[in-house]
Every structure is written in C-alpha cells, then in structure tokens.
Design brief:
Blueprint lengths: L2 H20 L3 H8 L3 H8 L7 H11 L3 H5 L16 E5 L5 E8 L5 E8 L4 E4 L7 E8 L1 E6 L2 E6 L3 E5 L4 E4 L6 E8 L5
Antiparallel strand pairs: 1-2, 2-3, 3-10, 4-9, 5-8, 5-10, 6-7, 6-9
Helix pairs in contact: 1-3, 2-4
C-alpha cells in the first residue's frame, strides 16, 4: 500500500472517528469547516485526496491537529517521528514546501512545521478558529509575513508570533530560499 493510500485511509477513519466523538453530523461538520457535505462523505469513504486547506479546515472544525487526522495509529505517550516520516503536505515545482514534523492534542491541537519558500513564492492561509496562535522562527533568508493585509519582515534568526484567526500569507520576496520552523496552537473544541 502506498503512503498516499495509507494517508487517505487514515484520514477517512480519523475524520469519522473524531466527528462521531464530537457528536457532529455530516451537516454540522460541513458547516463548521466550510466544506461541502459531499466532500466529507468522499473523505470518510477514502474516495478522495483533499487539499491541505480542506484538511486544515476539517481539523480546525474538529479541534484536532492535522497530525491526529493523518495518524496511522494511536501511539504511546512519547512519540518519536523519524525525519523520513515527516509528512510533506504542500510543495511547488520550484522547491518550496512545508513538512508537518510533529503534533500533540493537549490542551488543544499543537503542531510543529518545517517550511521552505523559494524566492518569489508564497503560501496563503485561511483564518483559523479564534484563539489560534502561530509562532515562527526564521532560520534562513527573510520571511514576509502578511497578517490581515499588513506585511511584516522577519529576518533569519528572528521569531514572530501572531493570532491566526485572520487571513495570513507566508512569502519570500528575497533572492535566497527562506526557511523557518513554525508552531501552531489551536484551542480545543468546547
């Protein structure tokens, strides 16, 4: 079975499991996530590979991390994620990418990401639920972080934090690759 098949089946199983655990109907989850009911049915039946944006919206609506949605199995309390098992969820032909390095569920979803953006490339993000906070630490190049339409320059060695409940974009307007580590904390579903 390919990695993509494993991810598709894990996503199907975990979306259904967490939707049921939260007591959400398909219609409720669709409304909360801003995703069609038909898309959720296809995901739960492992008949589609949704975009990263769709997976993020579903995770946010369920109050769980992408790591948990894509987890092949429930692991022990200490979970080591070997470098080759980091999940690359987005990439471009020019060489930009993000990798989900690790995640946890307490007290709400917490994710750690590795990002690389090539010169001239950017990656927009829809608003996350209120209370979501993102932390970034730039290790190479310069990040152009746009939050709610305002640009902020974050050079190598610097860090930034922001409330991520508004549209935001990670960009590289420089001439060298930009690399950063990012943590995302999403409040639990009440």
């Amino acid at each position: 079975m390919s990695d993509l098949d494993l991810l598709t089946q894990s996503l199907a199983r975990n979306v259904k499991r967490w939707r049921t655990e939260r007591g959400f109907t398909l219609d409720t989850l669709a409304a909360r996530a801003g995703v069609s009911r038909g898309m959720l049915i296809q995901i739960e039946q492992a008949r589609t590979n949704p975009s990263l944006g769709t997976v993020v919206k579903i995770g946010d609506a369920l109050g769980i991390s992408i790591t948990t949605l894509l987890d092949y199995e429930q692991g022990p309390k200490v979970r080591i994620v070997p470098a080759e098992q980091a999940v690359r969820l987005w990439h471009t032909d020019a060489g930009s990418y993000n990798r989900l390095l690790a995640g946890a569920e307490a007290p709400g979803p917490l994710e750690m990401w590795d990002w690389r953006l090539m010169p001239g490339e950017s990656s927009p993000s829809d608003p996350h639920p209120p209370g979501t906070v993102e932390l970034v630490h730039v290790t190479a190049g310069e990040l152009t972080l746009t939050v709610d339409g305002v640009e902020h320059r974050v050079p190598a060695g610097a860090s930034a934090s922001f409330e991520a409940n508004t549209p935001h974009t990670y960009g590289n307007q420089g001439t060298v690759p930009m690399e950063m580590v990012m943590a995302v904390s999403v409040p639990g579903v009440s």
